[in-house]
Amino acid sequence: MARLNHLQLSALPPPVLTRAEAVPALIARPADWLMVAGLAGTAQELSALTADAPNVFGLGGAMGAAPMMGLGLALARPDRAVLVATGDGELLMNLGALAAIAVQNPPNLRLICVDNGHYGETGNQDSHTGLGVALDQIARGAGFPAVLRIDRAEQIAEGRRLLAEPGLCFIWLRVTEAPPPRIRRSLVAHVLRDRFRAALAGPA
Amino acid sequence: MTEHDRDTGSATWPHALYDQLRAAGVTQFAYVPDAGHKVLIGRSLADPDAHSIPLTTEEEGVALAAGADLGAARAVLLMQSSGVGNCINMLSLIAGGRFPFLTLVSMRGDFGEGNPWQFPMGQAVEKVLAAMGVICLCAERPEEVTATVAAALTMVFGAGQAVAVLLTQRLIGAKPF
Fold first, then answer.
1. What CATH number should be reported for the domain whose range is B3-113+124-172?
2. Which of A65, A73, A104 sits opposite B53 (nearest CB)?
3. Residue A36's beta-bridge partner residues?
4. How do B26-31 and B51-54 pair as beta strands?
5. How many angstroms separate the CA of residue B71 from the nearest CA in chain A?
6. A75 to chain B: which residues are within 8 Å by CB?
7. Are B69 and A96 in contact (CB < 8 Å)?
8. By CB distance 3.0 to 4.6 Å, which of A50, A124, A189, B90 could disulfide with B62?
9. Domain spans, chain A
10. Residue A72 C-alpha, separation from nearest chain B C-alpha, in angstroms
């Protein structure tokens, strides 16, 4: 039988927060942000959080795209605050993006990784974070100037404070395997693009 | 030819190309370094009104370009032909979102290539880009570059297409090894 190395380096507490409660508590004012959401869970929960508002571009594929889409958007619109929310699986697919983002250091960009330690859409296999890979150490090493790990409800206020102040940051939100809220959302990417751009441009 | 031939620093067309991209409103220059893009990379680093964005892998630049478009900005991805293979699934985002997408590809594995490792990807570039809905235009001679890039800029930012301009080894030189 194959055995995976259950890493001991981070000695993390078991997750206790549910994403359905923690994500809305962390993103207190969703209308203030331009948001890019990773595929699956985070696209579902940001769409639910905003009642499917046009300021969310949620992926349904192209796994790994969300952080760099957020960078392109943040550089394009330095006058607006940009929030990327992505799962552990998607972030792990493109860890190099953390380095690419940190060397730009856009003050209007924030990253949240909603980490349930599993590939929830594909049979709930353990992800690398579920086996102990420490995303906060990776983000710090990549050069993120502010990094916060949230394990408990009383730490969410610190996360809200970090989101509210200028400066690039990475928030590692560790949650249980409980599923995200579900909402019907379009998976047609060009529809999402058009409505995002139209809402950002404002009335003609 | 010598290895130095791929260093386009002494040619004049790369400088005209940079000015052409900036005049067309391109502000985000994303790249994995290649000698064939040396001038564009250097100019973008020196340009206070542009973003110079080194990537760790080329697919990051595909996603970046889509994000730039969400914010009504224009990006270009500069990469070597080997990097095209790293972009394939990420081009789903461009196709599905109908994002305008411009990439300049410095070719390896074609005219006069001396490194056999470069042929599999170099020879597959046009096929895989076409399979993912990216239109390929080729520039073979210095005097063609401006017109080819002008055509690409119209197709991308005027007509919303995805276009790769292939800067061939006839244009930028080959590495003989």
1. 3.40.50.970
2. A104
3. A57, A84
4. parallel
5. 5
6. 27-28, 51, 53, 68, 71, 73
7. no
8. B90
9. 19-198
10. 4
